[in-house]
């Protein structure tokens, strides 16, 4: 499910997007997958792109033959090399987690960001408003 426009700090927007995709998936039996993953894919750099043109896709993993319709689309994340950092965060701490990767980890590494979408991957439901999230940033050697 794609959203175009501002999203930073808009917990209500994210809650609505997640509710819509989960409702769609639940009615098709897709929530029962043993290896289900939920993802938020960021297609644009919010420091560069116009806020009104920012694109985000709220996703779940699905079998390849899954049929989509309406406002639900299907996409495949390109393979390659990613730095994956696990965080335990509250909703207001996501920006700090992303900033740590770009301001601390990447400058100290032998990598630079690659030109593919970044994403957050959730392997379980939030508990007590705490999210366990893998932040995945595509990288390439310098």
Please provide a written account of the structure.
It holds the Pfam family GyrI-like. Residues 1-140 form the AraC effector-binding domain. It comes from Carboxylicivirga marina. InterPro entries: AraC_E-bd (IPR010499), GyrI-like (IPR029442), Reg_factor_effector_dom_sf (IPR011256), SmbC-like (IPR050908). This is GyrI-like domain-containing protein. With 142 residues, this protein is α+β, with helices and mostly antiparallel strands. The protein folds into two domains: 1-76; 79-142, Multidrug-efflux Transporter 1 Regulator Bmrr, Chain A (Alpha-Beta Barrel), CATH 3.20.80. Helices cover 22% and strands 30% of the residues. The protein has two helices and seven strands; from the N terminus they run βαβββαβββ. The protein has helices spanning 11-26, 94-108; strands spanning 2-4, 38-42, 55-60, 82-90, 111-113, 118-122, 130-141. Strands 1, 2, 3, 4, 5, 6 and 7 form a seven-stranded antiparallel β-sheet that branches. Strand 6 and strand 7 (130-141) form a beta hairpin. The longest helix is centred in the N-terminal third of the chain and has 16 residues, at 11-26. The radius of gyration is 15 Å and the shape is globular. The protein starts with a strand and ends with a strand.
